[in-house]
Write a structure and sequence with these properties.
three-stranded mixed sheet; alpha+beta; about 130 residues; CBS-domain; single chain
Length: about 130
């Protein structure tokens, strides 16, 4: 059986926001696009971090933070990146090693997708059900 690659399970069409975007606006964008994370862009389309729904909840609800603060305040950086030809097994190991839940997928300097622990879990379920 051929080794499965993350390009086979990744979500395409990653949504991003520029640094300086308010947490409020990031949250609105997540709701509009029905996503749980956003890539944060610095300068000329350079991805430098990620902000997740959990980051926002922790900041606003748990720490009683300012929803109008810049998203940079809660952005996780640097990004742990993957390539589309990375084996799913290796992606899972990266996720575990770095304690992240998502790996943006980089090709030719551009983020083309994202693979999450949920994507890997769904893949495993499909394999077991065969």
């Amino acid at each position: 059986m051929a080794k499965k690659l993350i390009r086979d399970i990744m979500t395409k069409g990653v949504i991003s926001v520029p640094e300086g975007t308010t947490i409020r606006d990031a949250l609105k964008k997540m709701g509009e696009k029905n996503v749980s994370s956003l890539i944060v862009i610095r300068g000329e389309d350079r991805p430098y971090g990620i902000v997740t729904r959990k980051d926002i909840i922790d900041e606003i609800v748990v720490r009683d933070g300012d929803i109008n603060a810049p998203v940079d305040k809660i952005t996780s950086s640097p990004l742990i990146l993957a390539t589309p030809n990375l084996r799913i097994k290796d992606a899972a190991q990266l996720i575990e090693r770095f304690g992240v839940r998502r790996l943006p997928v980089l090709q030719k300097g551009e983020i083309i997708g994202i693979v999450s622990t949920s994507d890997i879990f769904k893949y495993l379920i499909r394999r077991v059900q065969r």
